[in-house]
Amino acid sequence: SSSAASDVYKRQTLLSPRIGYLGAAEIARESARTGRPVRDIAIERGILTTREADDLFDMAQVARNRYGGEE
After folding, report:
1. Within a 10 A sphere around the Cβ of 11, how many other Cβ atoms?
2. What is the CA radius of gyration of the chain?
3. 31-34 long-range contacts, Cβ below 8 Å, gap at least 24?
4. Is it the case that residue 1 has pLDDT exceeding 60?
5. Per-residue pLDDT tens for 53-66?
6. How far is CA 24 from CA 28, 63, 68, in A?
7. CA distances for 11 relative to 2, 37, 67, 70, angstroms
C-alpha cells in the first residue's frame, strides 16, 4: 500500500546517515519487495543491533527531536 511504502522510505531516511544513501536505498528496495521491515533487514545484515534499531526507529523520539517536544 501507499502508506506502507511511505513508511519504508521514512525509515530509509533515518538509516541513510548511518550507512549512506545507496545502502539505505538497497535495504528499502528489499523491504518494499519482500514486505519485511527495514529494521529487521538492517539487524539481519549486522548494520544495527536490536538496541540501535529500537533507538533509531523510535518514531516518537524522532518526532520529539524534530519538533522539540518534551522527553
Report:
1. 24
2. 12
3. 32/5, 32/8
4. no
5. 998 888 788 777 77
6. 6, 20, 26
7. 14, 9, 18, 22
